[in-house]
Amino acid sequence: SVPLGYFAGIGAASKKGVLIKGGNYLEVLKDLDTIVFDKTGTLTTGTFSVTEINGNDEDALLRYAAYAESYSTHPIAQSIVKRYGKAIDKAEISDVEEIAGHGVSVVVNGERIYAGNIKLMNKFNIQAPTVDADGTLVYVAKDNQYLGYLVIADTIKPSTKNALAELKHLGIKKTVMLTGDREKTASHVAEQVGIDEVHAQLLPTDKVNEIEKILSNGKNGKVAFVGDGINDAPVLARCDLGIAMGGIGSEAAIEAADIVLMKDNIDAIGDAIRVAKKTQKIMN
Ligand code: ADP
Ligand code: MG
Question: This protein's superkingdom (predicted)?
Answer without folding.
Answer: Bacteria
